[in-house]
Amino acid sequence: MSEMPEATQNAIELKDISVTFKNSGQELHAVDHVDVQIKRGDIYGIIGYSGAGKSTLVRVINLLQRPTEGTVTVNGEEIQNLPAAGLRQARKKVGMIFQHFNLMKSRTVLGNVEYPLLSQKISKRDRIDRAQELLKLVGLEEYADTYPSKLSGGQKQRVAIARALASNPEILISDEATSALDPKTTKSILELLKKLNDDLGLTIVLITHEMQVIKSICHNVAVMDAGRIIERGPVAKVFTDPQAPLTNDFVETSTNVKDAIERITSTIDIEGFNDDQELMYFNFIGNSTQQGIVSQFSQQYKVDVNILFANIDQIDGQNVGYMIAVITGNLEVFNDAIRQLKGEGVKARILNGKATKGVEV
Ligand SMILES: Nc1ncnc2c1ncn2[C@@H]1O[C@H](COP(=O)(O)OP(=O)(O)OP(=O)(O)O)[C@@H](O)[C@H]1O
After folding, report:
1. Which pLDDT score is estimated for 360?
2. From ligand 1's centre to the CA of 31, what distance in Å?
3. Could you state, in order of their start, the residue ranges of all structural domains in the chain?
4. Torsion sign across C-alpha atoms 55, 58, 62, 65
5. Which of 30, 81, 252, 292 keeps 20 to 30 A from 260, CA to CA?
């Protein structure tokens, strides 16, 4: 099969996008010169704290928000200068789901799903068949006649997903769609999104403030802060080798490392450490294991390791390990050990929170 031309490989291309709001005379740069390219069939996560500009940026994709600057290309077509009818057509190719579902209370589940089809020239029978087919796809065929108030949060989000798929979109934008759900329901909704990506080839753009969500289903991720993208790349790469402090913060929160560091540094008497002791954090990928590191320290270098926290994660099929430990031993020998581990892709950091005793990390 010949390769697709470059332009059509991308479902979404946002070029030099800025969105500036004017609030009582003050300019707010909600999105500030952002470039994003999202490949067809990708699940692309955008993570950032509240106010980072994530929602504003994704609303630009279907021009619910017109950018102050920049160009928006969807499926190879620049959409800003389209006439109204063309823009309506282009918008149908982009479905959206939200944190609060936005279902119509007065309509049944079926009524909600068939709503976007009312404006299409299809028979009532076909419309109902299509809505029922979509309900089956999201596992809610038994609930066609139920009203939204009788549904759980997860079921409501499934209805919203079915409704978003009614006009056969190629892109689905999920704006914090799991933020109001408990962890188990979140998992089932993310599994459904993954299935839709696999089965329908749907391109998914997913906004969240939780790295756990990104880790569960995204292939690529962009980290947003104050209207800018500060880091981006494949999830496995960003997770294992975060560059920006904010990215590191998201990663350490989602792996429970942040909690563990706070708990340990607030309960352990670091001031009372001997000169040959350090509190250290290790992060390792792939072949290195916690056991391997500990035995290398203790057998090869005769340095003692007292593990206070350890966790292992699977990201894109790779093992990623995290360990916090008190290390006791001769400083020179200790530095040799750290140098060797570094050569093997293990990252080390001192957590003492004060001047170290000369350990080179
Ligand atoms: N229509 C608007 N008018 C004025 N300011 C706005 C408007 N929409 C968003 N903003 C401001 O733009 C900034 C970015 O908001 P945005 O909603 O895009 O952030 P976010 O990262 O999605 O955060 P959240 O998850 O809280 O929505 C915020 O300071 C917000 O107050």
Report:
1. 63
2. 9
3. 255-350
4. positive
5. 292
